[in-house]
Amino acid sequence: MYSFEHKSKPLIAAGKFYQRLLYNLLLAIVVILVSLIVGIWGYIALAHLKFADALLNASMILGGMGPVDAMPNDAAKYFASFYALFSGITFISTMAILLAPVVHRAMHRFHLDTEADN
Fold this sequence. Notes:
Largest sheet: none
Structural class: mainly alpha
Shape: elongated
Distance between the termini: 34 Å
Strand content: under 5%
């Protein structure tokens, strides 16, 4: 795990920045895959869907589109509800993971510009 450089330190080189972006992209992909696996498992276990249908439903909810199949029982409905809320949080978290290096670099550059003005 890396840490961001302090505002008193110089901006990291472009190559290091791209490595940081790649690391965060891979981390975001892992978060999405784990979330997708949780959804697939829930739909198979609780809604008794086949793998392809479970994958479709989990992908659609994780992508923000909504469910495809009607849920056959209350347990599946509760799972779908909590999975939808979980997916919203996952989306926000994934965007934060992806944008953190870019925002940090912009803020760091802005701080360097204000230091040079003094």
